[in-house]
Amino acid sequence: MKRLFGAVLSIFISWNIIDYIIHGVILSRAYQETSQLWRPMEEIKMGLMYITVLISAVVFVLIYKRLITNKSMINAVQYGVLFGIGVGISMGYGTYSVMPIPYTMAITWFFGVLVEAVAAGVLVGVIIKE
User: Fold this and answer.
1) What are the 10-residue block averages of pLDDT along the chain, 130 residues in total?
2) Annotated domain spans of the chain
3) Which of 1, 58, 82, 108 has its CA 20 to 30 A from that of 93?
4) Looking at residue 23, what DSSP letter applies?
């Protein structure tokens, strides 16, 4: 149980750090240029955002723990890559297909999610063993 909690906490923290780099640094200008699409800063529901990241981290860890039978670093990273492609394509290009966001935002979201998922794969590979 301690390993599961440690994996979830590690992933939650890493995803928040990477999210800050992606959204607060790399894409900050793109968000300013498309400000009409987003809530004003004072209306953003950061508590809800943290809850969604936490739930996603829990689900990521539980899928690995329960469904990946051969726990190894290579399988953990492969899981992270597949998870990242699946979620990243939906977030980046799925959103791009229905919202007038710049292409650079779509591709950055895609690769950002992919990086986050690979990092999470490495973390579960290190923390959760057979």
Assistant:
1) 95 98 96 93 93 98 96 97 97 96 97 98 94
2) 2-127
3) 58
4) I
